[in-house]
Design brief:
mainly alpha, 2 strands, globular, 2 domains, two-stranded antiparallel ribbon, about 0% strand
């Protein structure tokens, strides 16, 4: 069985979060650090962002979207074929070894969902993965903020949630207890 190490998965999440936030400098830095850009100075951050957002538009665009074989074929043509606007950049990019399995699975999942004509809010599903948290955490966090009886308590909890989220940690009342070794 092939396994992608947890640290590398976090690197891919960082790339995806930067793309979802349309953060050109962030995605450029994350791709360079991951090894996709052998000479980072040769790649314009806005252009790199556009390339990644095009390739992943089906899961970066919020709202319901029904996938189809025709849409998937068009997306592949626009994002990864020799006729793509990004072909010259792609020729200069590299794919880190750990990313090969991820890129292969990404393409296969997209193709299968298109064949099934699956529909969903792919951006919401992707956000759960990018955040590394299950949907239950979001529901619990919202409940924790809104269940306070006093307005000032709700405001304090919301500020704490925003601060902890920016740090990438769960709010203290929702953290799982540490397990004894």
């Amino acid at each position: 069985m092939r396994v992608v190490d947890a640290d590398y998965l976090e690197t891919e999440r960082r790339i995806a979060r930067a793309a979802a936030a349309s953060d050109a400098e962030g995605i450029h830095a994350a791709l360079a650090a991951a090894g996709y850009l052998p000479d980072p100075r040769a790649f314009a951050p806005e252009r790199v962002l556009s390339q990644i957002r095009t390739a992943g538009e089906w899961y970066f665009t919020p709202g319901f979207r029904r996938l189809s074989p025709g849409y998937i074929a068009d997306l592949m043509e626009r994002s990864s074929s020799p006729r793509s606007d990004f072909y010259e950049e792609m020729r200069q990019e590299t794919v880190p070894p750990q990313a090969l399995l991820i890129r292969r699975m990404d393409g296969l999942v997209m193709a299968v969902l298109g064949e099934l004509r699956a529909g969903g809010d792919w951006a919401a599903l992707a956000a759960e993965y990018f955040d590394g948290r299950p949907p239950s955490y979001r529901r619990a966090a919202i409940h924790w903020v809104l269940s306070a009886k006093r307005e000032e308590t709700r405001e304090r909890r919301l500020a704490q949630l925003i601060e902890d989220s920016a740090k990438g940690v769960d709010v203290k009342p929702l953290r799982r207890p540490e397990r004894a070794a």
